[in-house]
Amino acid sequence: MSTMAVLNKTVCIQLSISLWTGQRRLKAEDFGDVATKLPPKTVASLGSLKLCDPAKLDELKNLKRAAERSCHRLCVRFLGGYATNDDVLPKLTSELDTLSKEFATKAQAFVNSLRSEIEDWKSKHSEWSAAIERALPDIGYVAGRLQFGYEVFRVQPVSGDVADTVNSGLGRAIGGLAGQLFQEIEAEAEEAWKRSYENRDVVGQKALRPIFSIERKLEALQYLDPRIGPVIAQIRNVLGTMPKHGEINGANLFAVVGLLSLLRSANAMCAHGDAVLRGGTTGVSDVSTPTSHRALIEPIETELEFDEPPIRTPALPPVVEPASGLWF
User: Fold this and answer.
1) Do 176 and 311 touch, CB atoms closer than 8 A?
2) How many whole angstroms from its chain centre is CA 322?
3) Which of 106, 107, 99, 105 is nearest to 71 (CA)?
4) Structure confidence by residue, pLDDT tens digits, 245-301
């Protein structure tokens, strides 16, 4: 798929979520008579003064993290935000809209109870009551800080002439999307390995959830690189053999471990995709890193609509080839 074709199928999402920290930087006058004994600013900072119970803001923080997780599940990081296939946009915006409504409700409840929360906090820390009172912002300011929003947009070349050199940076950014995706999948698989599989000879059904999540993300972004398709097929081949209930052990666990070994390496995923596209029958245990140090993450060369050399995604360090058998 050409660079312009990828651009035309890609939508960008920028989250605009802000929170109130519930804190204010400490000042020397907050320490009263002992202020003269404080170290100078060139030596130490004074830290922060908490104006209310930090736990009271946790629900809003969790909603912000939930929005980031929703984007991460179906998108790849791009230009400081996220990018994804326009086909999945309705599902994603529906999730964000639901979170936005919940955020607005909880933010209003927090603002309504803030004065009483602060009084309770001051009573628990009476020696700092005066400093807390001096530091309190206007309630309207706090309400203005609690915002949940997002923007959806497309990116297009700034010049109508796609051969214009001013468009070369955008071309490189679009060309790097596939490499970014492989790196994100590698990180997610590594996290799943460490959290649920490492040093275990039996796992539960929940241990498969991260792999299903990886499959959905790859499916949403499959248009970025033809090598993604064979990786998806390999995931489905392995997951299709898993029991629907009960523990996963023995040969089944061995197969999942082998799949994770593939997913934990961007280079291995690219090698697997290349081999299948060339007509090979590469399985998980057959994927290996060539002796050459050329990074396999380089995308398949396609005809670019930007008049420039073929775009290369960021190179990754080569993966060490195991001695034999499945990768661990």
Assistant:
1) yes
2) 29
3) 99
4) 999 999 999 999 999 999 999 999 999 999 999 886 555 544 433 333 334 444 443
